[in-house]
């Protein structure tokens, strides 16, 4: 079942917590991240292609809602929130999908989610996807392949990770651990190792173990072990196991 991504732009911590709790009853709607000002909300919705933006009246002036709507991705639906109904008419005039008044009851929130579900279910993204595919094909025909960075959600922030900064990747169930240059601790990214291996195969990464892919550029040494496997040492001194099951990738490394 498709999930819908949600951005919450609300300065009040108590209201943010309430929205996050209310969303837990609606697993199809996943809170991506928080935004703490109007520009940040726009940037996040654009970079993450968010489906829904819950935004407080405190972050808007009546004259700026139209501009906010115009600068959001075409399919991001806006839900305005306030502690009074005074702004409701302007919100609906500028195509807000709903208007919530604090305190928000579970019953009222459920109605809002029903509206969002109905509207989101009507979008047909196929024509846009076809057009985007055509544009990419034209770009690739005239210039070198462009590698989009990984957009990674962390607590309170969004990280942009370039592929060139990844030394190796370890599998962790439905997540992978990205081990980056000059960083001691790995960061989690929601993707299986197989999906990540396919994504990075064209950029110098090879699979050396059922739970490890590594960028060839960072390998400095291979040593055979007594059981027929190899010990791989990276340029920063990190040791990794190279399983004999993946010996066919040896030629790719050299």
UniProtKB/TrEMBL annotation:
SMART domains the UniProt entry points to: LytTR
The keyword Secreted appears for this protein: no
Keywords, in A-Z order: Two-component regulatory system
Keyword Cell cycle set for record: no
Pfam families, per the entry: LytTR
Domain HTH LytTR-type: 150-254
MF (Gene Ontology): DNA binding; phosphorelay response regulator activity
Domain called Response regulatory: residue spans: 5-117
PANTHER family linked: STAGE 0 SPORULATION PROTEIN A HOMOLOG, TRANSCRIPTIONAL REGULATOR-RELATED
The name this protein goes by in its record: LytTR family transcriptional regulator
């Amino acid at each position: 079942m498709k999930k819908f991504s949600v951005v919450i732009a609300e300065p009040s911590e108590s209201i943010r917590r309430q929205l996050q709790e209310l969303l837990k009853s609606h697993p199809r709607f996943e809170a991506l991240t928080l935004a703490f000002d109007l520009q940040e909300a726009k940037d996040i919705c654009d970079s993450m292609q968010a489906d829904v933006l819950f935004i407080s009246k405190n972050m808007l002036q009546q004259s700026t809602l139209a501009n906010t709507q115009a600068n959001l991705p075409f399919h991001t639906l806006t839900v305005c929130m306030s502690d009074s109904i005074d702004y409701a008419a302007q919100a609906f005039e500028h195509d807000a999908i709903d208007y919530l008044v604090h305190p928000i009851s579970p019953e009222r929130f459920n109605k809002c989610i029903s509206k969002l579900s109905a509207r989101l279910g009507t979008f047909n993204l196929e024509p846009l996807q076809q057009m985007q595919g055509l544009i990419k094909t034209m770009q690739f025909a005239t210039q070198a392949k462009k590698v989009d960075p990984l957009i990674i959600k962390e607590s309170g922030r969004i990280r942009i990770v370039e592929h060139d900064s990844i030394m190796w990747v370890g599998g962790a169930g439905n997540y992978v651990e990205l081990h980056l240059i000059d960083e001691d601790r790995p960061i989690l990214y929601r993707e299986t190792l197989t999906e990540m291996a396919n994504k990075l195969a064209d950029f110098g990464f090879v699979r050396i173990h059922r739970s490890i892919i590594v960028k060839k550029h960072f390998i400095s040494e291979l040593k055979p072990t007594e059981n027929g496997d190899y010990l791989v040492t990276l340029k920063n001194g990190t040791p990794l196991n190279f399983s004999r099951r993946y010996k066919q990738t040896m030629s790719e490394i050299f």
